[in-house]
């Protein structure tokens, strides 16, 4: 936790918060904070700043907050992701938040197991929890938007063309395709497939909606690693 | 598991293996393989190829193996890594194997907690297990070399200059430094610090031994994410 993120409900006055949960525990056990110490804070979807620890008890801490600086810029990107398996999904939420992705669309695909859609990790609170962890890692305060699209074809045919319009549209896909471009200056719409990859029919539809296949070499990466590698290369 | 890696002990003849462990289970439960099916295989530190499933029983499987193709090339890189916390360490072993890093040197640093060196995940068998998982993911067969250097100063002063000689020497470090270069053509020696970063004294010593600080932007990445992002940018 490189930043302590403050929720609306933490505020007891304009510049005062009281913390009682894992953030209190983290201050006590990892930071070993003492009264008078200053910690980096941010307000969820708001500014970053510092907070002074006014009172520290076993069950709660009170801090005086000063927020003044803007969070880091997000990437100019919409990320389409075939729904990963639940365990990977949690880590991917952290990774996209850490890397500065502003919008993720979770998509069905032929090779996404139907059971993956039943995971409790897709509950809004569970998503938010992982996003917060990723933001705290990166010292960002702005939650990415997560959109769930359970039907591939209507999304790709009807809504993707509008999303991809005036962006560099790419779909990561192993095979005889151009290498993923580097250091682009445009906005990007990037789709990353499931374990086992997109099927040809899906690649055809994604192409027709404006995404061109690009590859990252012959090594097959886990979804989380592929997300990081593609973003590090593109931006 | 995109490749089934075969150990010397699996071979009962030049072209026959018998499997009984997690690989058998994986074939049964994930691949749902049947007699006559072909699976991708590789021999640890050897060639890649295919194997035909000759016999499949509850407790063991026999396969006929044909090995003919070379594994993918490794990156021209020596990676120095401040020892990560144990849970992260296991994932980092997988990631470096997947990404094609041929040699990793695990290093002490001021901000590495002493207790991290006691983890059972540093036992040779535990390291090997994670590397194998990473290789299976990437369809590679060649184990990276993992070197443990528990004393920072003698390593950096006495041995690092020789390692970094005739390579592009870099140390990832947040701050007012040049951005990490892209698409380099040379061999690289890259050092990545602990959570919380290198201390100035360490940066000075690394510089004197031939590594120049480079940064990846203002977001602070977990070690695993930083490794992937730096390699995707460099190569």
UniProtKB/TrEMBL annotation, chains A, B:
Key word Transport present: no
Ranges where the Ribosomal RNA small subunit methyltransferase E methyltransferase domain occurs: 73-234
EC number annotated for this UniProt entry: 2.1.1.193
One example of a Gene Ontology biological process annotation: rRNA base methylation
SUPFAM superfamilies xref list: alpha/beta knot (SSF75217)
Gene Ontology terms: cellular component: cytoplasm
Keywords: Cytoplasm, Methyltransferase, rRNA processing, S-adenosyl-L-methionine, Transferase
One Pfam family hit: Methyltrans_RNA
CDD domains per record: RsmE-like (cd18084)
Main localization category: cytoplasm
A GO term, aspect molecular function: rRNA (uridine-N3-)-methyltransferase activity
Keyword Aminoacyl-tRNA synthetase: no
Catalysed reactions, semicolon-separated: uridine(1498) in 16S rRNA + S-adenosyl-L-methionine = N(3)-methyluridine(1498) in 16S rRNA + S-adenosyl-L-homocysteine + H(+)
Subcellular locations according to the entry: Cytoplasm
Highest taxon above the source species: Bacteria
InterPro entries: Alpha/beta_knot_MTases, RsmE, RsmE_MTase_dom, tRNA_m1G_MTases_N
Family of this protein: Belongs to the RNA methyltransferase RsmE family.
Role description: Specifically methylates the N3 position of the uracil ring of uridine 1498 (m3U1498) in 16S rRNA. Acts on the fully assembled 30S ribosomal subunit.
The protein, known as: Ribosomal RNA small subunit methyltransferase E
Organism: Pseudomonas congelans
């Amino acid at each position: 936790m490189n930043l302590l993120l403050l929720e609306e409900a933490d505020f007891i006055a304009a510049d005062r918060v009281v913390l009682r949960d894992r953030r209190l525990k983290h201050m006590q056990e990892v930071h070993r904070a003492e009264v008078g110490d200053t910690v980096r804070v941010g307000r969820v979807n708001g500014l970053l700043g510092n907070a002074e620890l006014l009172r520290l008890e076993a069950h709660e801490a009170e801090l005086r907050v000063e927020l003044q600086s803007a969070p880091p810029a997000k990437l100019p990107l919409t990320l389409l992701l075939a729904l990963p398996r639940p365990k990977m999904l949690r880590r991917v939420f952290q990774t996209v938040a850490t890397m500065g992705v502003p919008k993720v669309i979770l998509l069905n695909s032929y090779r996404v197991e139907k059971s993956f859609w039943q995971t409790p990790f897709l509950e809004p609170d569970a998503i938010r929890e992982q996003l917060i962890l990723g933001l705290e890692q990166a010292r960002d305060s702005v939650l990415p938007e997560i959109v769930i699209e359970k039907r591939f074809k209507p999304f790709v045919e009807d809504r993707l063309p509008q999303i991809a319009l005036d962006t560099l549209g790419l779909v990561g896909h192993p095979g005889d395709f151009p290498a993923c471009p580097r250091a682009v200056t445009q906005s990007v719409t990037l789709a990353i497939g499931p374990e086992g990859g997109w099927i040809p029919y899906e690649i055809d539809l994604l192409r027709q909606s404006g995404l061109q296949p690009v590859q990252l070499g012959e090594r097959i990466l886990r979804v989380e690693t592929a997300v990081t590698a593609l973003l590090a290369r593109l931006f």
